[in-house]
Model the fold of this input.
Amino acid sequence: MPAKLDQKTNQRPDKKEVLTVIKIISKEINQFIEPVVSRIAKQKKNPYKVLISCLLSLRTKDEVTDIATKKLFSKINQPEDLIKLSTKTIEKLIYPVGFYKRKAVTIKKISKILIKKYDSKVPNTIEQLLELKGVGRKTANIVLGFGFGKPAMAVDTHCHRIPNRFGWINTKNPEETEQELMIIIPKNKWVEFNNMIVAFGQNICRPVGPKCNQCSITKYCLYYRKVYMNKLNANDTLTINNKH
Ligand code: SF4
Done:
């Protein structure tokens, strides 16, 4: 569990500061492997594959999603291909993503609906996407943003945790975070923001044990000032006391 901040500001952050932080993080993440879903979106330019990869990535590490999507997409390109496969075959192809049995059923059901209701296309509105069983707001926004290039703020665990650590927001759940971030982040940066924060969260600002000593935005981070520095100071005091 991430450490809790006991003090937060209720003020929204300064726009300049937000843009500065975005700029620094976008540069910093160049050294890391891009999150799998955005990589697939860039390579395939296929909203159906973005949708499927996003569903497979839920509660699954990127490395595992990467292998599973490669295996699955070597066999399928569109919903018609997927529904021809037996559920057992799909399970085998996507194993070991989390909940692979349930996901095999879900992606097959969704593919059937796409064929029947949307002429084999992925719908491009949030309302229609949310009607698909198994698709939540995060997935829907990822499909809109990465699959269709529409401005959409997809909030996953990293996008919820990290702006709260910065002190930009003080929210209890991803829905509240989505609403706040849409106010704070310029619209033309919404998709990029998800992509960079996921990479940043996987590599630096991790859920447990954020690497604050390697972070380049410490001066903009409330967690750093209120939690990390306090811990360091407490450790120093402990060391000094132990010496005497
Ligand atoms: S200073 Fe620490 S908590 Fe703050 S953004 Fe960097 S890694 Fe995350």
